[in-house]
Amino acid sequence: MKLLSFPLAAAFAAVLSLSACGGGGGGDSGSNVVVANPAALTKTDTVVGTGTEAVNGKNVTVTYTGWLYSTTAAGNKGAQFDTGSFSFLLGAGKVIAGFDQGVAGMKVGGKRTVLIPSNLGYGASGSGSIPPNAGLVFDITLTAVQ
């Protein structure tokens, strides 16, 4: 019985330590970030546009603000990591997959909130201030389609 109890205790300790990976908590360093993800890509139109529709193969221009997804923040909007405006070819893989999918179907003048799971965002590698495996939230306004 002693031989069995040690491996079980070691396995339990290993599981506990692995389950804590990536989770933030009371360490001294500010680098610990709690990573959360929405269950699936979710698109919510807050204003339905009336202009030209964004479809794959068209050049689109958007303004956006991006936040880390948080289960405890209002609107799931945790720490803001970016804001700006840019143009890109929709559906060409020039942006993360969740952003491409989130903009598709919008019409000029429309505003949409998109929740993006990490597998459609920056995944296990993260990017800059976006930690690995982090879900994202974007508020997007479609300003032009060409």
Give an overview of the whole structure:
The protein has 146 residues and is α+β, with helices and mostly antiparallel strands. It has a single domain (34-145), classed as Chitinase A, domain 3, CATH 3.10.50. Helices cover 17% and strands 32% of the residues. It is built from 2 helices and 5 strands; from the N terminus they run αβββαββ. The protein has helices at 2-19, 97-103; strands spanning 42-47, 59-69, 77-89, 111-116, 136-145. It has a 5-stranded antiparallel beta sheet with strand order 1-4-5-2-3, with helices on one face. A hairpin with a 7-residue loop joins strand 2 (59-69) and strand 3. The radius of gyration is 20 Å and the shape is globular. The model is unreliable at 1-31 (pLDDT under 50).
List keywords for this structure.
32% strand; 17% helix; five-stranded antiparallel β-sheet; globular; 146 residues; Chitinase A, domain 3; single chain; disordered N terminus; alpha+beta
Mind telling me the C-alpha Rg? 20 Å
Strand order of the largest sheet: 1-4-5-2-3
The CATH class turns out to be: Alpha Beta
Number of helices: 2
Q: How much beta, percentage-wise?
A: 25-35%
- Kindly state the number of beta strands: 5
Order of helices and strands: HEEEHEE
Reported for the largest beta sheet, the result is: 5 strands, antiparallel
What is the CATH topology classification name? Chitinase A, domain 3
Helicity, as a percent range = 10-25%
Please state the average pLDDT score. Answer: 83
Residue stretches low in confidence (pLDDT < 50, at least 5 long) are 1-31
CATH architecture: Roll
Q: Work out the count of structural domains.
A: 1
Provide the structure class.
alpha+beta
**Shape designation:** globular
C-alpha termini separation: 72 Å
